[in-house]
Sequence to fold (227 residues):
Amino acid sequence: MSGKSAYAVIWDVDGTLVDTAELHFQAWTALTREMKLPFTRADFNATFGWRNPEIISQLFGTVYTEQDVAEMGTRKEELYRSAARQGVKLVPGARALLEGLRDAGFKQAVGTSAPRENLDLILRLTDTERIFSAVVSMEDTQRGKPDPQVFQVAAQRLGVAPGNCVVMEDAVAGVQAAKAAGMKCIAVRFAGHHPEAALAAAGADAVVGSLEQVSVEKVQNLFGIGR
Fold:
């Protein structure tokens, strides 16, 4: 399988590798209840996958100081991790695809808007740390999706050209970020946060209902390479 190490798969986490959206919603609900701030399911759906600073400024305005925003984000993530420790599983098809891509020689990385502490917990709970050669989290970027920075940093750390990377995503903003980075993108609808038409319109090279529909061969075909 010569040449596969020149290709990479970059994974989003929440909604793509694991379906933790409800845990995040519950954490935001608990935080806003504590702070007596308005928060709805629509607010959550509109900002899911963003970095915390952008979520807070979008939903609650710019009245909070930088320290306030940091403390709010920290509290929300504490609430989330407390719930996540009760158990998080990979979505159907994820482990087989991760291991199949590894065995085929693809480099793999994580590119997410989540804080590193959250990411470390998820990778530990799902026993997937050893699969990834690079991990890019909120702390490694200054701009959130749809800005391509998170995927650009991941490609740099892997040493793979953007044009030889495919991003696995579930969100419109993530698809837009992947395409802005000059990468291929497979959009996964298992978590169901975004309609197929919206993901396709954002530029996804393929939209699937589940990772069970994604094979190593499907990824190879995006680049015109074979075993």
Observations:
- The chain has two domains: 4-19+89-223, 21-84.
